[in-house]
Protein backbone atom coordinates (compact mmCIF):
# COMPACT_ATOMS: atom_id res chain seq x y z
CA UNK A 1 0.00 0.00 0.00
CA UNK A 2 1.28 3.38 -0.94
CA UNK A 3 -0.02 6.63 0.46
CA UNK A 4 0.45 9.60 -1.84
CA UNK A 5 0.66 13.15 -0.58
CA UNK A 6 2.83 15.32 1.59
CA UNK A 7 3.85 14.03 4.98
CA UNK A 8 3.77 17.13 7.17
CA UNK A 9 5.52 15.55 10.13
CA UNK A 10 8.63 14.65 8.12
CA UNK A 11 8.89 17.69 5.86
CA UNK A 12 7.77 20.58 8.04
CA UNK A 13 11.29 21.97 8.65
CA UNK A 14 12.53 21.96 5.05
CA UNK A 15 11.33 25.50 4.23
CA UNK A 16 12.71 27.10 7.43
CA UNK A 17 15.97 25.25 6.79
CA UNK A 18 16.18 26.70 3.28
CA UNK A 19 15.46 30.16 4.70
CA UNK A 20 18.32 29.63 7.16
CA UNK A 21 20.65 28.75 4.30
CA UNK A 22 19.51 31.95 2.54
CA UNK A 23 20.35 33.94 5.68
CA UNK A 24 23.83 32.37 5.78
CA UNK A 25 24.39 33.24 2.11
CA UNK A 26 23.24 36.80 2.83
CA UNK A 27 25.73 37.12 5.69
CA UNK A 28 28.51 35.89 3.41
CA UNK A 29 27.50 38.45 0.76
CA UNK A 30 27.36 41.33 3.26
CA UNK A 31 30.71 40.48 4.84
CA UNK A 32 32.52 39.33 1.70
CA UNK A 33 35.14 41.44 -0.04
CA UNK A 34 34.63 39.73 -3.37
CA UNK A 35 31.87 41.76 -4.98
CA UNK A 36 34.29 42.96 -7.66
CA UNK A 37 37.82 41.68 -8.19
CA UNK A 38 40.58 41.96 -10.75
CA UNK A 39 40.47 38.96 -13.03
CA UNK A 40 44.09 38.80 -14.12
CA UNK A 41 47.52 39.52 -12.68
CA UNK A 42 48.46 41.93 -11.26
CA UNK A 43 45.46 41.96 -8.92
CA UNK A 44 44.92 45.66 -8.40
CA UNK A 45 41.26 46.07 -7.45
CA UNK A 46 38.92 44.46 -4.94
CA UNK A 47 35.56 45.80 -3.82
CA UNK A 48 32.83 44.89 -1.38
CA UNK A 49 29.39 46.33 -0.85
CA UNK A 50 30.95 48.83 1.54
CA UNK A 51 34.34 49.82 0.09
CA UNK A 52 36.60 49.77 -2.95
CA UNK A 53 40.28 48.86 -2.52
CA UNK A 54 43.14 49.38 -4.99
CA UNK A 55 46.85 48.89 -5.04
CA UNK A 56 49.38 50.33 -7.41
CA UNK A 57 51.45 47.21 -8.07
CA UNK A 58 51.70 43.54 -7.12
CA UNK A 59 53.61 44.07 -3.86
CA UNK A 60 52.08 47.39 -2.86
CA UNK A 61 49.65 48.12 -0.08
CA UNK A 62 45.92 48.31 -0.55
CA UNK A 63 44.32 51.74 -0.30
CA UNK A 64 40.60 51.65 0.36
CA UNK A 65 37.84 54.21 -0.05
CA UNK A 66 34.36 53.89 1.34
CA UNK A 67 31.50 53.55 -1.11
CA UNK A 68 29.24 55.21 1.44
CA UNK A 69 30.52 58.56 0.16
CA UNK A 70 28.51 57.99 -3.02
CA UNK A 71 24.73 58.29 -3.03
CA UNK A 72 24.43 55.15 -5.14
CA UNK A 73 26.70 53.26 -2.69
CA UNK A 74 24.42 54.15 0.19
CA UNK A 75 21.35 53.25 -1.90
CA UNK A 76 22.76 49.86 -2.95
CA UNK A 77 23.84 49.00 0.59
CA UNK A 78 20.55 50.18 2.11
CA UNK A 79 18.29 48.32 -0.30
CA UNK A 80 20.26 45.08 -0.06
CA UNK A 81 20.42 45.40 3.74
CA UNK A 82 16.64 45.98 3.95
CA UNK A 83 16.09 42.86 1.83
CA UNK A 84 18.41 40.89 4.09
CA UNK A 85 16.67 42.10 7.27
CA UNK A 86 13.30 41.12 5.81
CA UNK A 87 14.76 37.69 5.05
CA UNK A 88 15.87 37.35 8.69
CA UNK A 89 12.39 38.36 9.86
CA UNK A 90 10.85 35.75 7.51
CA UNK A 91 13.23 33.14 8.90
CA UNK A 92 12.15 33.94 12.48
CA UNK A 93 8.46 33.93 11.50
CA UNK A 94 8.87 30.59 9.71
CA UNK A 95 10.47 29.04 12.79
CA UNK A 96 7.52 30.27 14.85
CA UNK A 97 4.93 29.18 12.26
CA UNK A 98 6.28 25.67 11.86
CA UNK A 99 6.90 25.16 15.58
CA UNK A 100 3.21 25.59 16.40
CA UNK A 101 1.26 22.33 16.31
CA UNK A 102 -1.70 23.90 14.51
CA UNK A 103 -0.26 25.44 11.38
CA UNK A 104 -1.77 28.78 10.40
CA UNK A 105 -1.75 28.75 6.62
CA UNK A 106 -2.69 32.41 6.16
CA UNK A 107 0.33 33.28 8.31
CA UNK A 108 2.51 31.18 5.99
CA UNK A 109 1.14 32.96 2.92
CA UNK A 110 2.06 36.27 4.60
CA UNK A 111 5.64 35.04 4.99
CA UNK A 112 5.67 34.31 1.26
CA UNK A 113 4.48 37.84 0.49
CA UNK A 114 7.16 39.30 2.76
CA UNK A 115 9.77 37.18 0.95
CA UNK A 116 8.73 38.75 -2.36
CA UNK A 117 9.15 42.22 -0.84
CA UNK A 118 12.61 41.17 0.43
CA UNK A 119 13.49 39.93 -3.06
CA UNK A 120 12.48 43.25 -4.61
CA UNK A 121 14.75 45.17 -2.23
CA UNK A 122 17.63 42.74 -2.74
CA UNK A 123 17.39 42.84 -6.53
CA UNK A 124 17.25 46.65 -6.49
CA UNK A 125 20.52 46.76 -4.56
CA UNK A 126 22.08 44.13 -6.81
CA UNK A 127 21.20 46.13 -9.93
CA UNK A 128 22.23 49.55 -8.59
CA UNK A 129 25.67 48.33 -7.49
CA UNK A 130 27.20 47.12 -10.79
CA UNK A 131 25.57 49.75 -12.98
CA UNK A 132 26.75 52.71 -10.92
CA UNK A 133 30.06 51.14 -9.87
CA UNK A 134 31.16 50.54 -13.44
CA UNK A 135 30.03 53.97 -14.61
CA UNK A 136 31.35 56.14 -11.75
CA UNK A 137 34.50 54.40 -10.50
CA UNK A 138 37.53 54.09 -12.73
CA UNK A 139 38.51 50.47 -13.13
CA UNK A 140 41.90 49.35 -14.37
CA UNK A 141 42.57 46.03 -16.01
CA UNK A 142 40.03 43.28 -16.46
CA UNK A 143 37.56 43.06 -13.58
CA UNK A 144 34.73 40.68 -12.76
CA UNK A 145 31.88 40.58 -10.32
CA UNK A 146 32.96 37.75 -8.10
CA UNK A 147 31.96 35.23 -5.44
CA UNK A 148 30.35 37.51 -2.81
CA UNK A 149 28.23 39.15 -5.51
CA UNK A 150 27.21 35.63 -6.58
CA UNK A 151 26.18 34.80 -3.01
CA UNK A 152 24.06 37.97 -2.99
CA UNK A 153 22.29 36.89 -6.19
CA UNK A 154 21.81 33.39 -4.79
CA UNK A 155 20.12 34.92 -1.74
CA UNK A 156 17.80 36.98 -3.96
CA UNK A 157 16.89 33.95 -6.09
CA UNK A 158 16.22 31.90 -2.94
CA UNK A 159 13.91 34.67 -1.68
CA UNK A 160 11.90 34.53 -4.90
CA UNK A 161 11.67 30.72 -5.02
CA UNK A 162 10.85 30.35 -1.33
CA UNK A 163 8.24 33.10 -1.69
CA UNK A 164 6.47 30.92 -4.26
CA UNK A 165 6.68 27.88 -1.99
CA UNK A 166 5.32 29.75 1.02
CA UNK A 167 2.49 31.26 -1.04
CA UNK A 168 1.52 27.94 -2.65
CA UNK A 169 1.77 25.80 0.48
CA UNK A 170 -1.71 26.77 1.79
CA UNK A 171 -3.25 25.36 -1.42
CA UNK A 172 -2.30 21.90 -0.14
CA UNK A 173 -3.59 22.40 3.40
CA UNK A 174 -5.75 19.28 3.46
CA UNK A 175 -2.98 17.02 2.16
CA UNK A 176 -0.46 18.42 4.61
CA UNK A 177 -2.72 18.06 7.63
CA UNK A 178 -3.87 14.58 6.60
CA UNK A 179 -7.53 15.50 6.07
CA UNK A 180 -7.69 13.73 2.69
CA UNK A 181 -8.65 10.08 2.57
CA UNK A 182 -5.61 8.13 1.36
CA UNK A 183 -5.78 6.24 -1.90
CA UNK A 184 -4.56 2.67 -1.76
CA UNK A 185 -3.48 0.78 -4.82
CA UNK A 186 -3.61 -2.98 -4.70
CA UNK A 187 -4.02 -5.86 -7.08
CA UNK A 188 -6.58 -8.56 -6.54
CA UNK A 189 -5.56 -12.23 -6.89
TrEMBL record:
Membrane topology: Multi-pass membrane protein
Membrane-crossing segments per the record: 12-32, 77-100, 107-131, 151-172
Keywords, ordered alphabetically: Apoptosis, Cell adhesion, Cell junction, Cell membrane, Cytoplasm, Membrane, Transmembrane, Transmembrane helix
Domain of life of the source: Eukaryota
Compartment list: Cell junction, Desmosome; Cell membrane; Cytoplasm
GO aspect biological process, one term: apoptotic process
Gene Ontology CC entries for this record: cytoplasm; desmosome; plasma membrane
Family: Belongs to the TMEM47 family.
Protein name as catalogued: p53 apoptosis effector related to PMP-22
Organism: Gymnorhina tibicen
